[in-house]
Design brief:
Elements: H1 20-33, H2 40-54, H3 58-63, H4 73-83
């Protein structure tokens, strides 16, 4: 008989930090980071979609350099919520 192995999610200890809203937001971030890996096909599709959504017309981007889309803003927010002003 074949044995079925199920990978469980890693346990993340509860972290108390700031108010209830901040703590629950941190818990959500940690649960996403500790979740299962995304299949490669889905990651490639998501990357392609992000490139399509954020692509700019070449002539337009030369005129306005300040109108760029920053994809790092969510990462900055996550870093601030995890490490505060120390990061």
């Amino acid at each position: 008989m074949e044995q079925i192995t199920v990978r469980s999610r890693p346990r993340v200890p509860a972290i108390t930090c700031g108010s209830g809203a901040t703590s629950s937001r941190l818990d959500r971030h940690l649960s996403v980071l500790g979740g299962p890996a995304v299949p490669q096909v889905e990651a490639a599709e998501a990357t392609l979609l992000m490139r399509e959504l954020t692509s700019r017309d070449v002539t337009r981007s030369r005129r306005s350099k300040s109108a760029r889309v920053s994809l790092f803003a969510p990462l900055r927010r996550l870093r601030r919520s995890l490490f505060g002003s120390r990061g």
